[in-house]
C-alpha cells in the first residue's frame, strides 16, 4: 500500500487519511462528502430507529433519553411504568391501584375520595360552601294521544361519540361509582345521605329506520306541543344511555338492509330518608319507587317507538335518534359537539359547550365550567358564592372561595392535618407524620415508634431502633432492616418500603440500590421478515443473569440469511459462562454458523451456513455486560455466491473506514435495504452513494458485482 498522504498531504485542503489501496480527501473545512469527514461530525443518534422508547434529545457527541410522566428510565434507553403504589402505598389512605403512567387511590364501600384524591371521607360529608348538584329529571306526558318523554340533564353530563352512528351519554353520579366515574367525579362534592342501596333498572329499546344521531329538536315540533298531561315524573340520580345503529340484514331476502337503532338505558334512583314515615317503612318506600320507575320506563318505551323521546341540555332539546333526512342527502354535517370552521369539523374545546340551537360552541357562563371537549352543557361550579369567570375550563377556574381551595391556598401544610384538609389545621402528633399538603390524617410510624418532634413530614423522622442503608427497608414489627427482595430497590437511607422495578423488569439479586439494577428479561421469538434485529435483553443496558433467549429466523422461500455483528460485549472473566451461538437447529451436532463467548469490538459479516437459523444466548449468575444488537437481512439465494465473495474478502475489514460502515446503523440500513429489495437500489443516486460510502468501499463492491453479473467479459 502507498501512503499518498505523505506527499503534499495527498493534495487535501483540510486533512488526508490513508486507506488500503487508496486515500480519501476532504477538500473543505466543512468536511462533507466522504465517510472519514462525516465521522468527525456529530452523529444524530435520535434519527435512528429504536434509539429511545419515548423522547430522544441529541447532543454534540452524545444523546439522552427521556420518559413520559409516570415512567422512569432503565437500561439507558428504555422507559417503564412507575409502580407508585409500591412507594408508601402511593400515599393513599386506603387502597392503591397502579395504572400505566399513573395510579389511583381507592376507598372502601361507604366512603369516597377526598378532593386531594388520596384520603377517604364519609359519603355524607360535604366541602365548605358546596351545594348538591341538581339531579336529572325524567318527565313523560301525553298530548293528543301520543306519549312523549323528556330527560333533563342539568349537571354531571358526559357525551361520548363512540363512532359515526353510535354514542354514549351519562347524566348524574351513581351511588356506587366505577373507576372511570370515580376518576371523573373525584373533585365533585357529594352530599347524598343514602338510606339504602339505590334502585336500579335496565331497559333495551329499538327504533326502526333511524340512525343514532343526537340532533337538536326542530322548532316546529316544539311549537306543536299543545296541552300536555303529565303521566310520570321521576327524579333520577344517574342515567346511562347508549345508542347504537346497525344494519340488520334479512336472511333469504334480497331486500336492502334495514337501519335499526338499539338504545340501552340504565336508571338509578336514590332512596331518601325523608320519604319514610310511620305508615310506610323503608321496604314500602322502595316498592313504591320501583313501581314508579317501572311505570315511567313503560311510558318511555311507547314514546321511543313513536320517536318522541328527547334529552335536554342547557335549554336545548335533542332527538335521541333520527330518520335519514332526504333534504340533507349529499351534505355531510359535523357530528354533535363539533362545528364547521374553514371547511373542517372542529370539536368544541374545554371551557365551551356545543349549542344545538345556535350550532356553535358557546363559552361557559360564570359559575359553570367544562373540562372535557365536545360536550353539550357546562357543569355548575361546586360553590354558591356566585363568583367566577366565563369560559372556565376546570373547577380551579371557577373563582371564589373554591378557587382558593383548589389552588392550595388555605390547605394544611406537610406535617399538619384537619378534618377536611384545610385550615384551621392541627399538627401531626408524636409518632405520626404527613409528607403532603391538604391531608385529613397523619400516618403512624408503627411498632410503637415515636418521631423526633411533632409535625414530622417523613418516616425518616421516626426514631427507628436501627438505621437502614440503601437496598434495605425498615420492618416496624420486627424492628430490623430487611433486604429489598428481587424485583425491587431502595436508593435512600432509613425508608420503610422498597420500590418495585418499572415495567416488566426485575433485578439479578436482592438488596438492589438503584433503578439501573432493574433489567428487562424479555427476549427471543420467531423471526421471518426481510430485515430485523437480534439483541440481548435490556440492551444497551447490561443483560440480566441466568437468562436464556432463543430466536428462530425462518426466511421467506428461496432466500438466505446475512448476519452482521457490529460489536459484542461478553465478560471474558466468566470463562465462557455467557455464550451466543447460531446454528441450523437446537441439536448441538447441527451445522454451526457462529459461536462466541468473548468481547469483540471489531465487526464481522457472514452468511448463514443453513437456510434457517436457531440462535441461543445464555448467561450465568456471574458477571454481566452490554451484550449485542445484531442486524440481519434475507436476500435472494441467486446472489449467494456474490454475497459470500464480499463478506469473505479481507479488504472488507482491513480498512478502519469499512469497519465503521458495518457499525453505522444508517449505512447498514441502506445496504440491507438494497440487499433485501434490489429494486430499491435505484432510490439512491450516484452522488448519494458517493457521499455515504468511501470510494474504496464502492470500488470493492463494484468489481465484485461486475464480475458476478458479467463473468465472461
TrEMBL record:
User: What residues does the EGF-like domain cover?
Assistant: 42-80
* GO BP: any one term: signal transduction
Q: Which GO terms describe its molecular function?
A: calcium ion binding
Q: Name one Pfam family in it.
A: CUB
InterPro entries in alphabetical order: CUB_dom, EGF, EGF-like_Ca-bd_dom, EGF-type_Asp/Asn_hydroxyl_site, EGF_Ca-bd_CS, Growth_fac_rcpt_cys_sf, NOTCH1_EGF-like, SCUB_EGF-like_domain
Q: Identify the keywords attached in UniProt to this record, alphabetized.
A: Disulfide bond, EGF-like domain, Repeat, Signal
GO CC list: cell surface; extracellular space
Which pairs are disulfide-linked?
46-56
Task: Please state every residue range assigned to the domain named CUB.
Answer: 523-635
Q: What is this protein called?
A: SCUB1 protein
What is the protein's species of origin? Fregata magnificens
Q: What lineage does the source organism belong to? A: Eukaryota, Metazoa, Chordata, Craniata, Vertebrata
Whichever gene encodes this chain, its name is Scube1
Amino acid at each position: 500500500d502507498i501512503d499518498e498522504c505523505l506527499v503534499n498531504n495527498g493534495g487535501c485542503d483540510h486533512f488526508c487519511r490513508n486507506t488500503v489501496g487508496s486515500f480519501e480527501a476532504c477538500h473543505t473545512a466543512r468536511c462533507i462528502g466522504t465517510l472519514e469527514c462525516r465521522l468527525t461530525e456529530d452523529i444524530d443518534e435520535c434519527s435512528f430507529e429504536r434509539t429511545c422508547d419515548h423522547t430522544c434529545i441529541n447532543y454534540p457527541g452524545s444523546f439522552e433519553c427521556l420518559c413520559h410522566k409516570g415512567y422512569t428510565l432503565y437500561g439507558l434507553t428504555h422507559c417503564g411504568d412507575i409502580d407508585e403504589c409500591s412507594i408508601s402505598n402511593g400515599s393513599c389512605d386506603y387502597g392503591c391501584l397502579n395504572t400505566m403512567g399513573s395510579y389511583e387511590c381507592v376507598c372502601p364501600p361507604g366512603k369516597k375520595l377526598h378532593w386531594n384524591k388520596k384520603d377517604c371521607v364519609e359519603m355524607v360529608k360535604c366541602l365548605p360552601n358546596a351545594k348538591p348538584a341538581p339531579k336529572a329529571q325524567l318527565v313523560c306526558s301525553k298530548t293528543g294521544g301520543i306519549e312523549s318523554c323528556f330527560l333533563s340533564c342539568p349537571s354531571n353530563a358526559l357525551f361520548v361519540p363512540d363512532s359515526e352512528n353510535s354514542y354514549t351519554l351519562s347524566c348524574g353520579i351513581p351511588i356506587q361509582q366505577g373507576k372511570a366515574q370515580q376518576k371523573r367525579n373525584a373533585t365533585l362534592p357529594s352530599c347524598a345521605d343514602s338510606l339504602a342501596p339505590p334502585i336500579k333498572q335496565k331497559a333495551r329499546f329499538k327504533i326502526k329506520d333511524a340512525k343514532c344521531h343526537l340532533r337538536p329538536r326542530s322548532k316546529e315540533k316544539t311549537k306543536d306541543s299543545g296541552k300536555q298531561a303529565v303521566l310520570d315524573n321521576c327524579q333520577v340520580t344517574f342515567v346511562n344511555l347508549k345508542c347504537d345503529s346497525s344494519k340488520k340484514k334479512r336472511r333469504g331476502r334480497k331486500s336492502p338492509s334495514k337501519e335499526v337503532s338499539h338504545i340501552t338505558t340504565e336508571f338509578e334512583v336514590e332512596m331518601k330518608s325523608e320519604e319514610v314515615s310511620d305508615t310506610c317503612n323503608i321496604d314500602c318506600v322502595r316498592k313504591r319507587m320501583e313501581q314508579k320507575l317501572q311505570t315511567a320506563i313503560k311510558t318511555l318505551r311507547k314514546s321511543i317507538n313513536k320517536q318522541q323521546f328527547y334529552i335536554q341540555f342547557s335549554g336545548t332539546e335533542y332527538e335521541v335518534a333520527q330518520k335519514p333526512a332526504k333534504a340533507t342527502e349529499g351534505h355531510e354535517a359535523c357530528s354533535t359537539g363539533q362545528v364547521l370552521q374553514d371547511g373542517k369539523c372542529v370539536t368544541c374545546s374545554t371551557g365551551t359547550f356545543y349549542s344545538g340551537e345556535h350550532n356553535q360552541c358557546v363559552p361557559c357562563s360564570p359559575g359553570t365550567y367544562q373540562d372535557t371537549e365536545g360536550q353539550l352543557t357546562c357543569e355548575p361550579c361546586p360553590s354558591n358564592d356566585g363568583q367566577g369567570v366565563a369560559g372556565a375550563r376546570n373547577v380551579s377556574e371557577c373563582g371564589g372561595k373554591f378557587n382558593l381551595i383548589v389552588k392550595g391556598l388555605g390547605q394544611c401544610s406537610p406535617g399538619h392535618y384537619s378534618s377536611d384538609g384545610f385550615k384551621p389545621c392541627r399538627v401531626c402528633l408524636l409518632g405520626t407524620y404527613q409528607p403532603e399538603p391538604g391531608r385529613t390524617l397523619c400516618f403512624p410510624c408503627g411498632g410503637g415508634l415515636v418521631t423526633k418532634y411533632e409535625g414530622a413530614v417523613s418516616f425518616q423522622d421516626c426514631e427507628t431502633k436501627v438505621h437502614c442503608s440503601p437496598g434495605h427497608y425498615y420492618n416496624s414489627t420486627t424492628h430490623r432492616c430487611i433486604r429489598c427482595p428481587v424485583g425491587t430497590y431502595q436508593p435512600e437511607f432509613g425508608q420503610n418500603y422498597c420500590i418495585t422495578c418499572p415495567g416488566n423488569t426485575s433485578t439479578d439479586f436482592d438488596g438492589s440500590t438503584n433503578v439501573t439494577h432493574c433489567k428487562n428479561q424479555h427476549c427471543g421469538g420467531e423471526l421471518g421478515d426481510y430485515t430485523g434485529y437480534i439483541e440481548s435483553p435490556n440492551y444497551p443496558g447490561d443483560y440480566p443473569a441466568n437468562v436464556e433467549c432463543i430466536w428462530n429466523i425462518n426466511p421467506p422461500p428461496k432466500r438466505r440469511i446475512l448476519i452482521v455483528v457490529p460489536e459484542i460485549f461478553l465478560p471474558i472473566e466468566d470463562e465462557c459462562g455467557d455464550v451466543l451461538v447460531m446454528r441450523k437447529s437446537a441439536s448441538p451436532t447441527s451445522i454451526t454458523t457462529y459461536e462466541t463467548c468473548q468481547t469483540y469490538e471489531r465487526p464481522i459479516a457472514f452468511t448463514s451456513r443453513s437456510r434457517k437459523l436457531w440462535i441461543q444466548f445464555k448467561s450465568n449468575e456471574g458477571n454481566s455486560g452490554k451484550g449485542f444488537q445484531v442486524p440481519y437481512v434475507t436476500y435472494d439465494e441467486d446472489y449467494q455466491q456474490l454475497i459470500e465473495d464480499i463478506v469473505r474478502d479481507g479488504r472488507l475489514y482491513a480498512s478502519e473506514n469499512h469497519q465503521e460502515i458495518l457499525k453505522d446503523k444508517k449505512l447498514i440500513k441502506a445496504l440491507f435495504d438494497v440487499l433485501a429489495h434490489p429494486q430499491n437500489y435505484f432510490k439512491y443516486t450516484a452522488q448519494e452513494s458517493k457521499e455515504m460510502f468511501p470510494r474504496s468501499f464502492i470500488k470493492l463492491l463494484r468489481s465484485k458485482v461486475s464480475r458476478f453479473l458479467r463473468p465472461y467479459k
